[in-house]
């Protein structure tokens, strides 16, 4: 009899433990579960409303991980007179689970055209399928609705044409100015994407988890230069006196590390003992102040490579300066401008 009572008490404790510990965890996990495309098709009324009045197929602040980016082919043409830019991109994505939409980040961008190509389309040169775009500004997201379900474990290519104004602040792809010794105000176009502002420059999977490679092309006037994360491969001359710079493909990285600039700065360069090209960029009036910065940069890069026993991972290191000549080498790629800008 005593053992029976002990057994009942033990069983009661187990039931209490399950009710008090396990069940709440199950409930909490269910709160963070991601809705699927099937859920949207069954009950679209539970989802938010896009700007055109249709149901937006995603209700979470974080992007779904059903579709992941592999490579961005990005083209940008800023106009430093009208202070806007036109751009296009082709994103190679991998579909991990079948879905009928792709969710991307986009903020203050005018999407003009979106097409989808499968690998078969590209192989046989078939025209892409035009996609409908839904915009949900509250989460800075757009939804690309595909006519037929994307199949799991296949690659697709999303081509997007878009345009926007150069931003007024210090985020995204923005305009900045400096004054020459003669009193002239000049404009340059600069990026600052950290932590979540790449979406202001191009539609993207703007979360650190979604890493990809980037191939960047920048069109500019001949009086300007263009720079990005990687060394320039070639420059193509176009009609109307325009030039188009093509840069090497980056290492796999998050969107907030992408950087590019169009300006009229001048530079001085040197090579570290490990073969890394180091450049210091400054406005023409400040170019005479760059040589000390270059000398210090080369010494600091050598010091930190020896100290940490880790070589700098990229083929070049650049620094932009307006007035302050300070150089700090770090082993993460960061882009902080103004007063300094690293690429």
From TrEMBL:
<dbReference type="GO" id="GO:0016020">
    <property type="term" value="C:membrane"/>
</dbReference>
<keyword id="KW-0645">Protease</keyword>
<dbReference type="GO" id="GO:0070006">
    <property type="term" value="F:metalloaminopeptidase activity"/>
</dbReference>
<keyword id="KW-0031">Aminopeptidase</keyword>
<keyword id="KW-0812">Transmembrane</keyword>
<dbReference type="GO" id="GO:0005615">
    <property type="term" value="C:extracellular space"/>
</dbReference>
<keyword id="KW-0472">Membrane</keyword>
<dbReference type="GO" id="GO:0008270">
    <property type="term" value="F:zinc ion binding"/>
</dbReference>
<dbReference type="InterPro" id="IPR034016">
    <property type="entry name" value="M1_APN-typ"/>
</dbReference>
<dbReference type="GO" id="GO:0006508">
    <property type="term" value="P:proteolysis"/>
</dbReference>
<dbReference type="GO" id="GO:0043171">
    <property type="term" value="P:peptide catabolic process"/>
</dbReference>
<keyword id="KW-0378">Hydrolase</keyword>
<dbReference type="InterPro" id="IPR050344">
    <property type="entry name" value="Peptidase_M1_aminopeptidases"/>
</dbReference>
<keyword id="KW-1133">Transmembrane helix</keyword>
<dbReference type="GO" id="GO:0005737">
    <property type="term" value="C:cytoplasm"/>
</dbReference>
<protein>
    <submittedName>
        <fullName>Endoplasmic reticulum aminopeptidase 2</fullName>
    </submittedName>
</protein>
<feature type="domain" description="Aminopeptidase N-like N-terminal">
    <location>
        <begin position="69"/>
        <end position="257"/>
    </location>
</feature>
<dbReference type="GO" id="GO:0042277">
    <property type="term" value="F:peptide binding"/>
</dbReference>
<dbReference type="InterPro" id="IPR042097">
    <property type="entry name" value="Aminopeptidase_N-like_N_sf"/>
</dbReference>
<dbReference type="Pfam" id="PF17900">
    <property type="entry name" value="Peptidase_M1_N"/>
</dbReference>
<dbReference type="InterPro" id="IPR001930">
    <property type="entry name" value="Peptidase_M1"/>
</dbReference>
<feature type="transmembrane region" description="Helical">
    <location>
        <begin position="12"/>
        <end position="34"/>
    </location>
</feature>
<dbReference type="InterPro" id="IPR045357">
    <property type="entry name" value="Aminopeptidase_N-like_N"/>
</dbReference>
């Amino acid at each position: 009899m005593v053992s029976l009572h002990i057994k009942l008490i033990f069983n009661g404790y187990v039931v209490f433990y399950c009710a008090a510990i396990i069940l709440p965890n199950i409930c909490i996990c269910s709160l963070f579960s991601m809705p699927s495309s099937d859920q949207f098709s069954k009950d679209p009324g539970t989802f938010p409303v896009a700007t055109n009045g249709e149901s937006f197929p995603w209700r979470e602040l974080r992007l779904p991980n059903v579709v992941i980016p592999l490579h961005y082919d990005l083209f940008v043409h800023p106009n430093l007179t009208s202070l806007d830019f036109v751009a296009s991109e082709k994103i190679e994505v991998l579909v991990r689970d079948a879905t009928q939409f792709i969710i991307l980040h986009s903020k203050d961008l005018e999407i003009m055209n979106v097409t989808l190509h499968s690998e078969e389309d590209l192989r046989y040169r078939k025209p892409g399928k035009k996609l409908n775009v839904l915009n949900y500004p509250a989460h800075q997201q757009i939804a690309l609705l595909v006519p037929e379900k994307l199949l799991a474990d296949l690659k697709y290519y999303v081509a997007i044409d878009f345009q926007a104004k150069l931003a007024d602040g210090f985020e995204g792809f923005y305009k900045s100015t400096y004054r020459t010794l003669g009193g002239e105000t000049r404009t340059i176009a600069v990026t600052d994407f950290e932590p979540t502002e790449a979406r202001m420059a191009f539609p993207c999977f703007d979360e650190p988890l979604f890493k990809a490679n980037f191939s960047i092309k920048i069109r500019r006037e001949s009086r300007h230069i263009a720079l990005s994360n990687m060394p320039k491969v070639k420059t193509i001359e176009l009609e109307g006196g325009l030039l188009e710079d093509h840069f090497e493909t980056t290492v796999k990285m998050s969107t907030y590390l992408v950087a590019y600039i169009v300006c009229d700065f001048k530079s001085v360069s040197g090579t570290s003992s490990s073969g890394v090209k180091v450049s210091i960029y400054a406005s023409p009036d400040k170019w005479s102040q760059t040589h000390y910065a270059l000398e210090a940069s080369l010494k600091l890069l050598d010091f930190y490579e020896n100290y940490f026993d880790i070589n700098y991972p990229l083929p070049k290191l650049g620094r932009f300066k307006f007035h302050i000549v300070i150089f700090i080498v770090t082993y993460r790629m960061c882009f902080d401008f103004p007063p300094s800008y690293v690429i």
